[in-house]
């Protein structure tokens, strides 16, 4: 699933999304905690902290997920766990070569995120004002297609979807030109 679809799903269907995230990634987080001076209760607490950070990020209008969701979640978990260990005086047994690789991957993801957001913002300035506003409402303000239909005065949901498609196509063409 593409990252923008993942973000849209996380923003619109949080209950099911977090259940799926738990099923898919909790075991990885627990494994990391257990291997690094923690127990199951620590893993549960850490997972909740990771979800709080993720929700806070999702609520930011400028947030763009440029890494894989697994990479992003594990990076948050490892950083939070490392902080907890350093404040509690426990030692982490994690191989720091892996930590270095993870840190480099995170840095690259952050750089890509900034670059992607800047490129997207630049492309938005080249679009028609109507398409710019429409895509902003759909992807950044997370308005449903029914809200778009009513707000923009489209006679049917299908017309609103067609207009969305045309605006996305306009964005793709601008991207291909640049």
Explained architecture:
With 178 residues, the protein is mainly α. The protein has a domain at 3-97: Orthogonal Bundle (Rna Polymerase Sigma Factor, Chain: A), CATH 1.10.1740. It has eight helices and no strands. It has helices at residues 3-12, 14-35, 40-58, 69-88, 96-126, 129-140, 145-152, 157-177. The longest helix has 31 residues, at 96-126.
Topology:
Blueprint: H1 3-12, H2 14-35, H3 40-58, H4 69-88, H5 96-126, H6 129-140, H7 145-152, H8 157-177
CATH topology of the domain at 3-97: Rna Polymerase Sigma Factor, Chain: A
Question: If you compute it from the alpha carbons, what radius of gyration comes out, rounded to the nearest whole angstrom?
Answer: 20 Å
Mean pLDDT: 80
* Alpha-carbon distance between the two ends: 26 Å
Task: Point out poorly predicted stretches.
Answer: 92-97
What would CATH call the homologous superfamily of the domain at 3-97? RNA polymerase sigma factor, region 2, helix turn helix motif
Strand content: under 5%
Q: Which percent range fits the helix content?
A: over 70%
Summarize the helix and strand pattern as letters.
HHHHHHHH
In terms of structural class, how would the helical and strand content be classed? Answer: mainly alpha
- Counted by DSSP, the helix tally is 8
Number of strands: 0
Q: Can you tag this structure with a few keywords?
A:
8 helices, mainly alpha, single chain, Rna Polymerase Sigma Factor, Chain: A, 178 residues
Could you write a compact summary of the structure shown?
With 178 residues, this protein is mainly alpha-helical.
């Amino acid at each position: 699933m593409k990252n923008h679809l993942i973000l849209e799903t996380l923003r619109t269907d949080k209950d099911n999304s977090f259940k799926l995230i738990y099923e898919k990634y909790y075991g990885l987080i627990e494994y990391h905690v257990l291997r690094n001076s923690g127990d199951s209760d620590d893993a549960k607490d850490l997972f909740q902290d990771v979800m709080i950070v993720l929700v806070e990020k999702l609520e930011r209008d400028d947030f763009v997920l440029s890494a894989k969701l697994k990479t992003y979640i594990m990076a948050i978990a490892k950083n939070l766990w490392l902080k907890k260990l350093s404040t509690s005086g426990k030692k982490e047994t994690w191989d720091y070569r892996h930590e270095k690789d993870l840190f480099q991957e995170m840095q690259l993801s952050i750089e890509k995120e900034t670059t992607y957001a800047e490129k997207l913002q630049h492309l938005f300035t080249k679009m028609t004002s109507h398409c710019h506003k429409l895509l902003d409402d759909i992807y950044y303000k997370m308005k449903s297609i029914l809200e778009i239909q009513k707000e923009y005065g489209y006679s049917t949901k299908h017309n609103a979807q067609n207009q969305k498609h045309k605006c996305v196509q306009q964005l793709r063409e601008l991207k291909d030109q640049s």
